């Protein structure tokens, strides 16, 4: 598995994954299909501080995408990032998730961030279990924070601290 920096031409692939999960699951909180412009609005492409990647298998197949972005835009939160990881349909259950998390965390660590936050739909047991196996601690639940297809959705908040308290952010 390899993380390859995401470029503009990868945005339709990202859109297609989001749209698949929008239509077939509760794990994405979009209600309607999105277009490439919307993906561009939240996906850091070419950003020097926040990175996005295509997940490639050892055989070179595009298996998904991942990225990290500011946890919050207020300056005091500059030490923390939020991660997003999606595997394309058919690539689940192959052990890619923990490999992706380890590689993504290393990139985050190298950029001087101390805290990683992951927000997961409470009904997504596979992702919750995977992040827990990767050392993330469940910090809380936001009950009934969203609604999709007439169902109330709750979000689980996970955190992993990467660097010692006295480390400083490099930006």
Explain this structure.
This protein is an alpha+beta fold and 171 residues long. Helices cover 26% and strands 33% of the residues. It contains four helices and seven strands. A seven-stranded mixed beta sheet has the order 1-2-3-4-5-7-6, sandwiched between helices. Strand 2 and strand 3 form a beta hairpin. The radius of gyration is 16 Å and the shape is globular. The C terminus is likely disordered.
Quick overview of this protein structure:
By secondary structure, this protein is an alpha+beta fold. It is built from 4 helices and 7 strands.
User: How is the largest sheet built, in terms of strand order?
Assistant: 1-2-3-4-5-7-6
Number of strands: 7
Structural Rg: 16 Å
Instruction: Report the end-to-end length measured between terminal Cα atoms.
Output: 28 Å
Order of helices and strands: EHHEEEHEHEE
Unreliable parts: 165-171
Q: Biggest β-sheet, characterized? A: 7 strands, mixed
Helix/strand structural class: alpha+beta
Number of helices: 4
Shape: globular
Beta fraction of the residues? 25-35%
Overall pLDDT level: 94
- Helix % is 25-40%
